[in-house]
Design brief:
By secondary structure, the protein is mostly beta strands. It has five helices and 20 strands.
Length: 374
């Protein structure tokens, strides 16, 4: 089969409309389940990308069923990818580098659609690069999946995301229920992300469309400061935290019910730049958050829901002027709640060693989260 290296490269390159090179060995183990092994595979990037290669792969192993090929059915019994280095990115106009094939290809042209029964990845890296050059990196130590007909779906992923360990397991009903419309697909899973441990279970009728979902979840963890590596530099820090909740979706929209709490909250860096000193620092010994709502859209679910926040043993330091001393509140309890409209706030504590109370309203959560215009 190695004698056909040039034809194989040309065929795959033409199909993807990208240059594909095979720099290593090509092997074929002949049987009723032929196994192909290809080494040192590279796939080129479009000219505008930040590096020449979209992907480089040390080794691809592909085992197929022979008899279905006679009926133009590609049944992949096992697909293994080892040592892949893939970088996803977008151009400033939004064009992605992971869309393959000619855009002017003949529409509706039929081909062979593969059926993958088992898929695995080992020792691979996936990077996403935004137009400003900021990179998000995930390292896959091992992925094992089972997608065989009439068998339960199983997925196990182990790796790192932005240097934080990740271990995810998902078990579900058979693949036919997952793909069939209006058919309930039940699932259960657990995840470990750094110090966070979570569990989910529920069902969905059309998971890929977020339709007919009834999902319950719980999680707990410690030291949220590590999440700055995953999300952003501005993340509230907590010594420990826990939450339980439920998410649903149906013909009339989405719904949720969540309760969360944590201790030793710190917001000292939330409003500052990477190196700048924050003008506002907030700490709290204990914090509780509860939310419940229904909305036609996911965005509306956040802003139109009812929320209640309570912080106990809080302290606030606001450096409001370069010439005046900072405003300092201590031993303060704060309650804030909204039912999709204005936020009502009640505060009781001490300022400059003297007790005080305050009540008032703020704008709606929707206004607070709206994009600010210059």
């Amino acid at each position: 089969v190695a004698d056909y290296r040039g034809q194989i490269e040309a065929l795959v390159s033409r199909s993807l409309d990208r240059e594909v090179k095979i720099g290593g060995a090509i092997e074929l183990k002949r049987s009723l389940r032929p196994r192909f092994v290809v080494e040192q595979v590279s796939v080129a990037n479009p000219p505008w990308a930040s590096r020449p290669l979209f992907a480089s792969i040390d080794r691809i192993e592909l085992e197929v069923a022979l008899l279905p090929l006679l009926l133009r059915q590609l049944e992949i019994i096992e697909l293994r990818v080892v040592g892949a280095d893939i970088q996803l990115e977008r151009r400033r106009d939004g064009t992605p580098n992971w869309v393959f094939g000619r855009q002017d290809a003949e529409p509706g042209k039929s081909g062979i659609v593969p059926e993958v029964l088992s898929f695995g990845v080992k020792r691979s890296k996936l990077v996403y690069r935004d137009p400003d050059g900021v990179k998000i990196e995930a390292v896959v130590e091992n992925i094992d999946t089972l997608l065989a007909p009439r068998q339960p779906v199983r997925v196990h992923l182990k790796g790192r995301y932005q240097q934080i360990p990740v271990d995810v397991q998902l078990d579900g009903d058979n693949l036919e229920n997952f793909l069939a419309p209006a058919t309930e697909w039940k699932f259960r899973g657990k995840a470990l992300l750094g110090n966070l441990r979570g569990d989910i279970h529920g069902s969905a009728t059309e998971p890929l469309k977020l339709a007919g979902i009834n999902l319950s979840f719980s999680f707990h963890g410690a030291r949220t400061g590590a999440w700055r590596s995953i999300l952003t530099e501005h993340v509230p820090q907590l010594a420990d935290y826990r939450a339980t909740g439920r998410f649903t979706s149906g013909p009339e929209g989405f719904g949720f019910d969540v309760r969360a709490e944590g201790s030793d909250l710190e917001l000292a860096k939330l409003w500052s730049g990477h190196d700048a000193a924050s003008v506002l620092a907030i700490n709290a010994q204990h914090i509780e958050l509860a939310g419940r709502g229904n909305a036609a859209t996911l965005t509306g679910l956040l802003t139109q829901a009812g929320w209640k926040l309570r912080a106990q043993g809080a302290a606030l330091r606001w450096q409001h002027s370069d010439t005046l001393p900072p405003l300092v509140l201590s031993d303060t309890d704060v309650t804030a709640e909204t039912q999709g409209g204005p936020i009502t706030v009640a505060v009781q504590g001490n300022v400059a060693g003297k007790p005080f109370t305050a009540q008032g309203t703020l704008g709606a959560l929707e206004s607070l989260l709206a994009e600010k215009k210059s």
